[in-house]
Specification:
single chain; 219 residues; alpha+beta; BirA Bifunctional Protein, domain 2; four-stranded antiparallel sheet; 47% helix; 11% strand
Length: 219
């Protein structure tokens, strides 16, 4: 699949993020949307091969809307300048680990894990890290995992230790996280390369043990 049109449309949208321009270029958006949905379907087919729990999902329902919710935001731009899709057993990664695909000029990536778990699930994940930290360490140090990921993203991390855990806990840096996400970035050239689907599949396969660890924690 050629991502040139999608990237070109999103780049233009980032420079013209208003309803007037969007309506005039609606046909370009619809083409990009259709192309992205087709690719999401191909990704889903590959993920199902090693994640049977994803079978039965409708690929057209996995992409996120391009329309931003600006009701409580100072940023009133109406449209997202990316296309993203979430893959998890119940749909779009709502309180469950899974995979995420993000296409954006100069900022594409594939990610996995669990995003902002609620307090109950966060507590369960921390408890699992406390009890089975060696298992998580083995996952994060695996050669196949390290080929694609450096560890958890730090964007949503406590500065101090969470309540209930000693400051000298051997897993304290993991316990500080409130979101457990790993990601791998792709250049625009890599996105447009014919091997992009294969790379996404390989990276997703490498992160599956982490998703399984998190799933076991919250069940």
């Amino acid at each position: 699949m050629d991502f040139s049109h999608i990237l070109k449309f999103l780049k233009a949208l980032s420079k013209n993020n208003d309803r007037g321009w969007f309506e005039k270029n609606k046909s370009d958006y619809l083409q990009a949307k259709e192309e992205f949905e087709l690719f999401v379907g191909k990704v889903l087919e590959e993920l199902i091969k090693f994640n049977p729990s994803l079978a039965g999902l409708n690929p057209k329902k996995l992409p996120f809307r391009i329309y931003r919710d600006v009701r409580f935001s100072k940023d009133k731009r109406p449209y997202k300048t990316n296309m993203g899709a979430g893959f998890s057993p119940n749909g779009k990664l709502v309180q469950e680990p899974g995979f995420y695909l993000h296409i954006q000029p100069g900022g594409s990536f594939v990610a996995g894990g669990i995003y902002m778990p609620d307090p109950a699930n966060l507590g369960k994940i921390r408890q699992e890290i406390d009890y089975n930290g060696e298992k998580l360490e083995k996952i994060l140090r695996d050669k196949k995992f390290k080929k694609w990921f450096k560890g958890f993203s730090d964007f949503d991390k406590l500065k101090n230790m969470p309540k209930g855990y000693a400051k000298d806990h051997p897993r304290i840096e993991w316990l500080k996280h409130k979101t457990f996400i790993v990601s791998h970035a792709f250049t625009d050239a890599e996105v447009k390369d014919k091997k992009f689907l294969k790379q996404i599949t390989e990276a997703s396969r490498a992160m599956k043990p982490l998703n399984e660890f998190l799933k076991d924690a919250i069940q």
